[in-house]
Amino acid sequence: MENITGKVVAVTGSSAGIGRAIAIKLAEKGAIVVLGARNIGKLEELAAEIKESGGEATCIETDVKHKADLVRLVNTAVEQYGRLDVLVNNAGVSQLSRIDELDTDGWEDMIDINLKGVLYGMAAAIPIFRQQQSGHIVNIISTSGLKIVPMQGVYAGTKNAVRTIAEAFRQESDGSMRITGISPGFVKTDFAENIKNEAMKTMVRKGMEQMGIDPVAIANAVVYAVSQPDDVEIGDIVIRPSKQN
């Protein structure tokens, strides 16, 4: 874990759930965390909690739908701490429905956050990484898309698009910039609360209650990936409940 101490890590969607767990765990291991999310109140509470525990954190309101917000997030890291070592693209949203229900608003929301939000994060971080000649992108993806099932078509599509883009970036990189994909299955978070389809919301809640794992499991995977020596890249990690099909 010595390779984490002092690293500056920006985390999107860090006000709750998996993102919050990632920020706390990284701070415990000695990283400096730069918190980004839309809920600035929760971010400020988390930053204060980390500092009270002896860690270092700062926060900035961040909506990944907006390119400028991601630029501000990474620039905050550089301005306050002199560098950015890791960007964790964690922010995500799910609207689960049949494709022929034509929830175009839901489609656009998922594309804007799950896909374009990741690309905007990469676009903000890569110039800094290029200048430093080092950097690490960690994308929190999903087990959706590894197995194609009804009701998850567009959601899984956004997640598989991130997988494809990440693999292309890995091949294009000269090794100075690393990229890792972490795909969680059912995790105990409030992720289901934004789902508009009531039947799917109930199903996801039930899955979380019956077999959801602690978000700390995902945070531990991030710690593992970013703690590796500079010449080691962790590609893809899938973390699901042992009971999940």
Would you give an account of this structure?
With 245 residues, the chain is of the alpha/beta class. Helices cover 47% and strands 16% of the residues. It has 7 helices and 7 strands; from the N terminus they run βαβαβαβαβαβααβ. It has a 7-stranded parallel β-sheet with strand order 3-2-1-4-5-6-7, sandwiched between helices. The longest helix is centred in the middle third of the chain and has 29 residues, at 104-132. The radius of gyration is 17 Å and the shape is globular. The model has no long low-confidence stretch (mean pLDDT 94).
Offer a quick outline of the entry.
The protein has 245 residues and is of the alpha/beta class.
Outline the secondary-structure elements.
Layout: E1 8-12, H1 17-28, E2 32-37, H2 40-52, E3 56-61, H3 67-81, E4 86-89, H4 104-132, E5 135-140, H5 153-172, E6 177-184, H6 198-211, H7 216-226, E7 236-239
Helix pairs in contact: 1-7, 3-4, 4-5
**Rounded Rg:** 17 Å
Main beta sheet strand tally, sense and closure: 7 strands, parallel
General shape: globular
Class of secondary structure makeup: alpha/beta
Question: Considering DSSP H and I runs of 4 or more, what fraction of the residues is helical?
Answer: 40-55%
| Order of H and E elements | EHEHEHEHEHEHHE
* Distance N to C terminus: 32 Å
Main-sheet strand order equals 3-2-1-4-5-6-7
Q: What is the mean predicted local confidence, pLDDT?
A: 94
Low-pLDDT segments, ≥5 res: none
Number of strands: 7
Strand content: 15-25%
**How many H/I helices?**
7
